[in-house]
TrEMBL record:
Matching SMART domains: PKS_KR
Protein name: Short-subunit dehydrogenase
Family, as annotated: Belongs to the short-chain dehydrogenases/reductases (SDR) family.
Keywords tagged on the record: Oxidoreductase
Amino acid sequence: MAPSAPAPGRTALVTGASSGIGAAVAAALVERGYRVFGTSRNPETVSARVPGVEYLALDLTDYDSVAACAEAAGEVDVLVNNAGESQNGPVEELPMDAVERVFRLNVFGAVRLTQLLLPGMRARGYGRVVMVGSMLASFPLAYRSSYVASKAAMKGFSDAVRREVSPFGVGVTTVEPGSINTGISERRTQYVGERSAFREEYQTMVDSLNANEAKGISAERVARTVVGAIEAKRPHPLYAVGSNAPLVFALRRLLPRAAMLRIVARKHGLR
C-alpha cells in the first residue's frame, strides 16, 4: 500500500487525541503536513499535548457537544473516529446503563460526528473517514461482549456507508488493531462481582488480556496503518494490524467459526 502525498491544506479531526492511538495518529498527521484538530473531554487537562495539534472539547455521549465540536472544526477532510471505552464483564452482570454508555461512546457519538462532517466532504469531492475498531470485532472474546458488539457495530456502519459515499470521492474504512501496549488495561471499565459464579474464569481472561497487551504493538505502529488508510488512493474496507493479523485472518477464512472461537478463548486462558 503506497500512500499518496497529502494535499496542502488538508484538515483532520482525530477523536480521543489526548493519549494512546489518538495522540499517535494526531502526531503522525501533523508530521505529514495536515492541520490537525484533536479532541478530549477536557482539553485544558491534557498533560502531554501533541505539538501542532489544536484541541477541541468533545463529549461523545452528548449530541450537543458533538455538534459544537463539528462546528468548531469547520471543513474537515479527514475524520478519525478513535475515542471510546474498553469494557469487560460477564453479560449477566453488565449494568444496562454501562452497556448503553459504551455504545453511545463507541458507536452513536461516532456516527453522529460522521453524519455532520460527511456533507462537507461530499460537496468538496474528497474525504476520508476511519473507524478505529478492534480485532475482537472479528475474533470475539468471552467477557468482552459489550465492547465486541460496539466495535462490530462500528465496522458494520463503516462497510455499509462506504458504498453510499464512494461515488463522491469519500473513502470509509475500519482499522482493527490487535493487542496494543498503550496502558489501556489500566483504564478499562470492569463489571464483575466478588462472589460472581464467573469470577475465576473472568480473572484468567483478564490476566491473559493484560499480558498480551503488555507485549502488544505500539500506538505508533497503529498510527502508521491509519495514515496509510487515509492516504491510499483506494482505501480498503478493513486494515488489521498486530496480533499476527495476516495469519489469524487467513485461519479465519479456512477454519469453521466454532474452531476460531475456541482458538481465541484458549489464547486467553479459557478452555
